[in-house]
Amino acid sequence: MADKEQVPPVDGVDGAKLSKGALKKAEKAAKKAEIIAEKKAQVGDTAPADSADGEDVSQGHYGEQPLIQSKEKVDRNLIKVKELSKENGKLVDQLVWIRGRLFTSRAKGKQCFFVIRQQQYTVQALLAVSGSVSKQMVKFAAAVSKESIVDVQGYVRAVEAKIEGCSQQDVELHVEQLFVVSASEPRLPLLLEDASRADSGVNQDTRLDNRILDLRTTTNQAIFRLEAGVCKLFRDSLDKQGFVEIHTPKIISAASEGGANVFTVSYFKNSAYLAQSPQFYKQMAIASDFNKVYTIGSVFRAEDSNTHRHLTEFIGLDLEMAFNYHYHEVTDQIGQLFVEIFKVPDT
Asked: In this predicted structure, what is the pLDDT of residue 49?
């Protein structure tokens, strides 16, 4: 039989011969060091990708903004997106700050286009590599997740061709600084781009489960503003005619209308009912010499319905007035009210 190959003895730190166990440990340590060196070499191969971008001339002009803790007051005038237009000539070619949500973004080469949304208003922003904007900044902007709240500083520039996808179609923002104020989750359960389309296919359950996102769509923003506008015009018109706004109880001790079903609620040790109408209280006000009153408030009707839309709860706009000689005094007042609400403004 051939003799076994003899492993040459290895000297320890003090010149002593290492045991077989210590020798195995030394071999393992050497292999581990070799693997680590290989990994470092691999990282070194990819590192030039960042260094190839060159010096970051935009350092300090972009990034994640620290959590706002009201420790200091920032002297910064945030311009509303709806004010950005050619008509507002004083802002064109001016450096401004805006805050909004990142609606959409697309990066191509050394440029990144993104849309900033502020409620129902949107404006296009452009970030391009230049003497003051680095490649690193463009990459950062392209990676910001949708629906994140961002602070953007840039120059308002007029454009020749209309930007069809934005509410502000005659201007765009050339970005100089970009900070993420509050980052959203990378993956959202509901995409606003989909929810904003009439044929999106997003079902009602998904919308209601993610109501906060769904209410950000332009359609829902418009619905709530129309409601607010109608209530304002209702108030303004009646106030000019000498009406007094009153507020009536919504938890009552007995049904206010015999012909409608009521919701029963527990009121301490007794039962109470949600108001079906403010009619009783309006009549009390007229008998108390208020002469003309109106109220805006919730109305509850316990009426089961076979449809997916019903009137178990709605906001009622009610008025009551005393007439002198003929009920036409009331109908004329109501007719004038509707004209005031629905007429087209002169502007």
From this structure: 42
User: What's the pLDDT at 51?
Assistant: 52
75 in Cβ contact with 112 (< 8 Å) = no
Nearest to 106 by CA among 75, 130, 141: 141
Confidence (pLDDT) at 255: 78
How far is 319 from 238, CA to CA, in rounded Å?
9
Return the pLDDT at 53. 65
Please give the Cα distance from 166 to 155 (Å, whole number): 17
Indicate the residue type of 259: G
> Which pLDDT score, from 0 to 100, does residue 43 have?
40
What's the distance, CA 121 to chain centroid? 12
The pairing of strands 264-267 and 270-274 is: antiparallel
Residue 82 CA to chain centroid, in angstroms? 16
Asked if residue 57 lies in contact with residue 131, where contact means CB atoms within 8 angstroms, the answer is yes
Residue-level pLDDT at 17? 58
Report yes or no: 173 and 97 within 8 Å, Cβ to Cβ: no
- d(C-alpha 243, C-alpha 229), whole Å: 19
Q: What is the pLDDT of residue 5?
A: 46
- Name the strands in the sheet holding 292-300, side by side, starting at the edge strand that comes first in the sequence: 244-245, 292-300, 313-321
Q: Coil, strand, or helix at residue 33?
A: helix
Q: What is the pLDDT of residue 267?
A: 94
Q: How far apart are CA 149 and CA 216, in angstroms?
A: 13
d(CA 68, CA 88): 31
> Which residue stretches of the chain have pLDDT < 70?
1-18, 20, 36-53, 257-260, 344-347
CA 152/CA 102 separation, integer angstroms: 10
Candidates 33, 182, 195; CA nearest to 99 is 182
**Long-range contacts, 329-338 (Cβ 8 Å, 24+):** 333/241, 336/237, 336/241, 337/234, 337/237, 337/238
How far apart, in whole angstroms, are the C-alpha atoms of residue 97 and residue 155? 9
